[in-house]
Amino acid sequence: MEVKLKLLLDLMPLSNLTKKLYQDTRTQRNVAKLNDELYEVHQIMTRNVQEVLGVGEKLDQVSQMSSRLTSESRIYADKARDLNRQALIRKWAPVAIVIGVVSLLFWAKNKIW
């Protein structure tokens, strides 16, 4: 256990003060402190992982909403284009019909006479 603890302390970037607290592994107090701190770190890491998973789920929801919004905006743009076309036809169709009828009458008058 002492070798594992020494290896753990060598690998972790701890300050010198913290290393000195845990170097004497024979005392029960230091081992209890180490276990308490490891438990706290475990709780913090568990909480962080849960938060990351929650953020991931929220990102998935935002992505789905964005996809729906994109498709609905395309539909809206198509419908707006159709409505503009219909409004243009309603506005200019009577004028085109009148011009067509007058032209037809002039053409027919020239053919008959």
Gist of the model:
The chain has 113 residues and is an all-alpha fold. The chain has 3 helices and no strands.
Number of helices: 3
Proportion in β-strands: under 5%
Distance between the termini: 120 Å
User: Structural class from helices and strands?
Assistant: mainly alpha
Mean pLDDT: 81
Largest sheet: none
Question: Describe it for me?
Answer:
It is a single chain. With 113 residues, the chain is mainly alpha-helical. The chain has one domain (2-112). The chain is built from 3 helices and no strands. The protein has helices at 2-11, 16-22, 28-112. The radius of gyration is 40 Å and the shape is rod-shaped. The N and C termini lie far apart (120 Å). It is found in: Endomembrane system.
Name some characteristics of this structure:
rod-shaped; transmembrane; about 0% strand; about 110 residues; coiled coil; mainly alpha; V-SNARE coiled-coil homology domain-containing protein; 3 helices; V_SNARE_CC
Please outline the helices and strands.
Blueprint: H1 2-11, H2 16-22, H3 28-112
Keywords: Coiled coil, Membrane, Protein transport, Transmembrane, Transmembrane helix, Transport
Protein name: V-SNARE coiled-coil homology domain-containing protein
Subcellular location: Endomembrane system
